[in-house]
Amino acid sequence: MSRTVLDPTSDRSLAVQLADLLRTEIRAGSRSQGSQLPSEREFENDYGVSRTVVRDALDALVLEGLVVKRKGFGTFVRQQPPVRRVSSRSRHDLHRTANKPVFDVEAAIHGRVPSRRILGVSREPAPTDIAQWLEIEAGADVVVRRRLQLLDDQPAVISASYYPLWLAGGTILESPDALKRGPDAEIEALGHPAAWGTEVFRARMPDPQERRLLALDAGVPVVRMLHIDYTESNCPLQVADDLYAADQHEFAFMWTSEGGSPPA
Q1: Which of 52, 77, 102 corresponds to the end of one domain?
Q2: Contact at 8 Å (CB) between 76 and 37?
Q3: Cα separation, 67 vs 37, whole angstroms
Q4: Is residue 243 situated within a structural domain?
Q5: What's the Cα-to-Cα distance from 17 to each of 8, 25, 60, 163, rounded to whole Å?
């Protein structure tokens, strides 16, 4: 790879110039995902800069989530094969057609292997924001299913689903085992098909526990998605509170004009 000469007379520091150069190469694909970057000594020799400059440049890219440092092995371009999550009016058709959770169907479309680990199933007081979406009193008991969803055995999503007791109490939704068809199918099997829904997104940095569960490297944010399902009579059925590792997902939203229809 040809080397770009850094300009010591520029008003941009050498570390910023080197970080900009590497960022451009990574995004252009000339430094491929998973590839190892040169050692600090090689960067020094190739660009005529000090080790401090190299470390500052690499640290900046680590914080941006573009590269990861592996102790004893070096620095690598982060592998970022995203799973695309498509929001559309036909979202629930996925689980109805495949008889599998939507997460599993979307993962398979992208050639990934989905799995999950149950973190707990319990009755507990609803947090204030969840209660508002469920249209119940804050602190009222709900059934909560928590699970860690994985792609190719790597943590990808922390999921917590909240169900009102009138719907979930004493049903399979309180089972401590994984639901093979997924909770959406079980809700409909109980006689409550989802007619429409809404989704709310917010990006932020993870807390220590979230970072541990998702095995996140430094600089990787999370995206919190609340997905609320409703019946035809506008009664809320569930709030799915999903926390996505942002480097493993991208989100697409589908819309149609009046009379239009999305592709099959």
Answers
A1: 77
A2: yes
A3: 9
A4: yes
A5: 9, 12, 11, 51
Is the distance from CB of 158 to CB of 224 less than 8 angstroms?
no
The answer as to whether 9 is a domain residue is no
Domain of residue 26 covers 14-77
Shared-domain flag, residues 67 and 165: no
Question: Quick check: is 6 in a domain?
Answer: no
Q: Would you say 31 and 78 are in contact if contact means Cβ atoms under 8 Å apart?
A: no
Q: How many CB atoms lie within 10 A of CB 192?
A: 16
Assess whether 111 and 67 both reside in one domain. no
- Count of domains in the chain? 2
**Three-state SS at 137:** coil
Confirm whether 51 is domain-assigned: yes
Same-domain status, 96 and 218: yes
- pTM of the full predicted structure? 0.70
Question: 146-174 pLDDT, tens per residue?
Answer: 999 998 888 989 999 999 999 999 999 99
Q: What is the four-CA torsion angle of 7, 10, 15, 21, rounded to 10 degrees? A: -60
DSSP-based three-state secondary structure for 13: coil
State the pLDDT at residue 90.
56
- Residue 221: which residues within 8 A CB-CB, separation 6 or more? 65, 203, 204, 205, 206, 246
Q: Which residues of 206-244 are buried (b: 16+ CB within 10 A; e: fewer)?
A: beeebbebbebbebbebbbbbbbbbeeeeebbbbbbbbb
pLDDT level of residue 209 (50, 70, 90 thresholds): very high
